[in-house]
Predict the structure.
Amino acid sequence: MDDFTLNDHSSNPGKKGFAGNTRQQLPVVNWLADIPEAQCETDLVEVQFKNTRKGYYVNSTHIPIEKGDVVVVESNLGHDIGVVTLMGRLVLEQIKKNRINIERYEIRRVYRKVKAVDMEKYNEAKAREQATMIRARQIAKDLNLAMKIGDVEFQGDGSKAIFYYIADERVDFRQLIKVFAEEFRVRIEMKQIGARQEAGRIGGIGPCGRELCCTTWMSNFSSVSTNAARCQDLSTNPLKLAGQCAKIKCCVNFEMAMYLDAQKDFPRKDIHLETIEGTWFLCKSDTFRRLLTYSSSPSVMANLQTISVERARQVIAMNLNGEKPETLSIEEGKAKPVEYQNVVGQDSLTRFDKDKKQSQRRNNRRRDNNAKRQNSQTNENKN
């Protein structure tokens, strides 16, 4: 049988445990791929369809399938075509991870491996998706609905279409479904998604230069607030914090727990330090070096003094007892000056440039030798 792939090799996760270079969205590493007992532990398989849509099916007839095979699965009033992304014991772990109640979950069957006839219908259905999405957006605009059609996905047999839409408020799309059914002659299903899910389905490159996290590996989206940026001393400028979905970047949450753990014993930012010299206000902090920079003015960075967290807590304790130190920093609490080093290993940026003086001497020496050689040849010719 011929090997078939879906969406021009963009959804085929490969035969091995790792996804390889196939750009599969939300890949799962099958770290039990080399253990035959784990692969035969259950008949359930994980099947992935367009983008991030996945489902769990039972191989009741024990068809010899492997990870990466394109299969025809049972669907509501028809069949669908997807690619097997996981088999064996890890399927049970994924079901547990996604908090799916297997008793209430309607498990459908795997019919067979895909055939050439199935792929023809599949390709015909997928070829209609782009034009259908553009026409659906126009229809929604004509009906004055406050929604955006983000993506359209046809079922493998072309009998059903899923319209993914984004809306900030509740939308009454009963009239829209009637118009869609008359226009496209298929069964209609509407699914609401958020801005982050839309970015994950469309894909793109982030400011870090890598593929979006929501496209490659993120499946659960937790809320991100500006407090996560403040605790990391990041700029709260919305233009710098926003990702391609116009929401705060998910990666702001990645290191927040580490910062909060490191800042447990840091004094609050609204606490001022009182000394005989005057009052000092916190203006900057270095979390992992445990340094705090104070200014003598609450609005301007003037007379900056950098001290350690321990020294700041010591001054705060003295202020609570009604005492004031003479100066903010003492010899033990002073911060060491930052010693900047060349990142290329103390090598000069001009280390590959030729020395002009040496080149000039070499050229002069070469010119003198040529002149002596010419003179000697001239004398020989005269003789």
Notes: Residues 7-23 have pLDDT under 50 and may be disordered.
